[in-house]
Write a structure and sequence with these properties.
The chain is mainly beta. The chain has a single domain (2-262), classed as Beta Barrel (M1 Pyruvate Kinase, Domain 3), CATH 2.40.33.20. The chain is built from five helices and 19 strands. The chain has helices at 51-54, 84-94, 115-121, 154-160, 223-228, and strands at residues 2-8, 17-18, 21-25, 28-29, 36-38, 61-65, 68-72, 78-80, 99-101, 109-111, 131-133, 149-153, 171-174, 189-191, 194-203, 230-233, 237-250, 252-255, 260-262. Strands 1, 2, 12, 13, 14, 15, 16, 17 and 19 form a nine-stranded mixed beta sheet that branches. A three-stranded antiparallel beta sheet has the order 4-3-18, with no helix packed on it. The longest helix has 11 residues, at 84-94. The radius of gyration is 17 Å and the shape is globular. The two termini are 12 Å apart.
């Protein structure tokens, strides 16, 4: 297999930045999920998993430039993450006060409505939003959903007929068979000089169905998973999944085009 795409997401729930080469450590790709917005009223991390409140974040993009996070607004303005204007701009656009954080508070959680309910009732519906603690499978204080790395294969993407962008993976790996990632748990995945260990199938929320920049909504991003790939996610139940989370066994540098071997 081969690593075809490398993407980091410096700000949680914003569009990310593709790179050719990147360092990988215990907390994942360098500068990935490095910042997040928090709702000071509830204390929850702001994520498009709760589309009624936060889907607008997917119209923003974030990148790292000279060790700084910069955010590009839907109107094309670029603002440094440390600039107070960013919080002002986001709060006004989202219609709710937000704060930007560089370190994940202990026990940080997100609100995650059932994606099937969102599809059935619409993104504006007031749907029950159970909370989920993030980063349970990683050390450090970044804002990853579970384990430090998120990956998916081109076989799964091609089978679904949906753009990789919608699933927000760090690594897209060419090869395999549809949903083969389910069987990789506990094995070692050698990516160039880095060794990963898949930990969980990736449960899918509403995010892949939402607008991502210029891409419109796409219910097909999760509806086939509800029929074809409901699997047991240890600790979370039987859920529609695509891709896998992974922990870092051995860090190093990876690059697009690196060979990928399952051991």
């Amino acid at each position: 297999m081969e690593l075809t795409t490398l993407t980091r997401y410096p700000v949680k729930s914003m569009l990310g930045q593709q790179v050719e080469r990147i360092a990988v450590g215990a907390t994942g790709l360098e500068s990935d999920r490095w910042r997040a917005l928090l709702d000071p009223t509830t204390g929850y991390v702001c994520t498009a998993k709760h589309p009624r409140l936060w889907r607008r974040l997917l119209q923003y993009s974030a990148a790292v430039q000279d060790d700084r996070v910069v955010v590009t607004t839907p109107g094309g303005e670029t603002i440094d993450a440390e600039d107070p204007r960013l919080v002002e701009t986001l709060s006004a656009d989202l219609g709710r006060a937000v704060e930007i954080h560089a370190q994940r508070p202990a026990g940080s959680s997100v609100e995650r409505p059932d994606p099937e309910e969102v599809l059935a009732q619409g993104v504006e519906a007031e749907i029950e939003a159970p909370t989920l603690e993030i980063s349970q499978g990683t050390e450090g204080d970044t804002f990853v959903d579970h384990s430090p790395i998120h990956l998916i294969t081109t076989a799964t993407l091609d089978h679904l007929g949906v753009e990789a962008l919608r699933y927000r993976p760090n690594l897209v790996i060419a090869g395999g068979t549809p949903f083969e990632e389910n069987s990789w748990l506990g094995r070692e995945l050698h990516v160039g000089e880095v060794v990963l260990r898949p930990t969980l199938p990736t449960p899918r929320c509403s995010v892949p169905t939402l607008e991502h920049g210029d891409l419109g909504r796409e219910p097909r991003a999760i509806t086939p998973l509800m029929r074809e790939n409901r699997v047991e996610v240890p600790g979370f139940g039987v859920l529609p999944c695509a891709g896998a989370y992974a922990e870092v066994v051995r860090g190093g540098t990876i690059a697009r085009g690196d060979s990928v071997t399952l051991v």
